[in-house]
Structures are given as C-alpha cells and as structure tokens.
C-alpha cells in the first residue's frame, strides 16, 4: 500500500531522506547525520547523539517503509543478529560497530523509499515531496543529478 502525502508540503526529515538517496556527499555517517539533524533542529551538531540518529532513522523507516508490525519487528531483530548481542536493550548504544551497522541498514532501507509513482495518464504522481537539497548543510554528492 502506497502512502500518499500532501505533495505541497515537504516531508519531515527530508534532508535525511535525500542523504540516504545519495544527494549529499557521504563521509562519516554519524557526523553527517549529526550535522543534518542539528541544522533541522537549530542546534549544534555535537548536541545530536547516536540515540537521536537511530530514533530519527527508525521513525522514517517505520513511517515510510513498514508494511506491518511484523516487518518492523523482524527487521529490527535482524539488525543485531550478526553481532550476536544477547540483550540488545541499551547496551547496543555502547558498541560503535553495532551502531554503524544499524545506521547503514536503515539508510539502505530509506534510500529505496518510493517518492514518485509511475506515470498515469501521462502525469507523474508525487508520493513524497522531498524538496530540494540544501548544499549549505553538506556538499553535493558526485552522483547527484
């Protein structure tokens, strides 16, 4: 089921989605996302922590990618199976390898969010209005159009 959003309004966290889709140059994922979220919130990037990043990515994933509760639960469990963490809980936040893995997995899922539908009657349907990249936040990716 496709979720159609009011195409006049730019979706929340649009720059995070644009980042996942490759519009911004990627260097260090955590620092990049701290900068994007800091700019969005009007605070210094160093005040954004990994919990904020994981919460934001999970919220975007849940809002635009999840088809049902089981899909979200199964995906979340699969994030941590490869590191064999017995009680994921709050201990996951101390393991930077696990955090980076979770961020990469979530960015991968977010990168394939469908923003436009196939043409109907010659018209393209916009499902999500991401607005335009703001290259004052991060530099333009070499792959961006």
Strand content bin: 5-15%
Provide the helix percentage. 40-55%
Morphology: globular
Biggest sheet features: 2 strands, antiparallel
Number of helices: 5
| N-end to C-end Cα span | 29 Å
Low-pLDDT sequence parts: 1-6
Structural class: mainly alpha
Number of strands: 2
Radius of gyration, rounded?
16 Å
Average of the residue pLDDT scores = 81
Order of strands in the sheet with the most strands? 1-2
Topology as H/E string?
HHHHHEE
Can you tell me the number of structural domains?
A: 1
Describe this entry's structure for a reader.
With 145 residues, this protein is mainly alpha-helical. It has one domain. The chain is built from 5 helices and 2 strands; from the N terminus they run αααααββ. It has a two-stranded antiparallel sheet. A hairpin with a 2-residue loop joins β1 and β2. The longest helix has 16 residues. The N terminus is likely disordered.
Fold blueprint:
Layout: H1 14-20, H2 29-41, H3 50-64, H4 69-81, H5 96-111, E1 116-120, E2 123-126
Helix pairs in contact: 1-5, 3-5
List keywords for this structure.
single chain, 145 residues, mainly alpha, two-stranded antiparallel sheet, 6% strand, globular, disordered N terminus
What's a quick, concise take on this entry?
The chain is mainly α. The chain has five helices and two strands, in the order H-H-H-H-H-E-E.
């Amino acid at each position: 089921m496709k979720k159609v959003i009011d195409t006049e309004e730019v979706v929340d966290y649009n720059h995070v989605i644009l980042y996942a889709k490759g519009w911004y140059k990627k260097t260090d994922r955590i620092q990049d996302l701290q900068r994007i979220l800091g700019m969005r919130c009007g605070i210094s990037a160093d005040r954004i922590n990994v919990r904020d990043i994981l919460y934001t990515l999970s919220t975007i994933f849940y809002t635009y990618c999840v088809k049902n509760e089981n899909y979200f639960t199964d995906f979340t469990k699969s994030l941590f199976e490869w590191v064999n963490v017995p009680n994921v809980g709050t201990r996951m936040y101390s393991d930077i390898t696990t955090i980076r893995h979770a961020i990469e997995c979530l960015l991968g899922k977010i990168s394939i969010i469908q923003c436009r539908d196939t043409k109907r009657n010659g018209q393209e349907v916009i499902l999500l209005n991401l607005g335009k990249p703001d290259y004052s936040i991060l530099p333009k990716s070499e792959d961006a159009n």
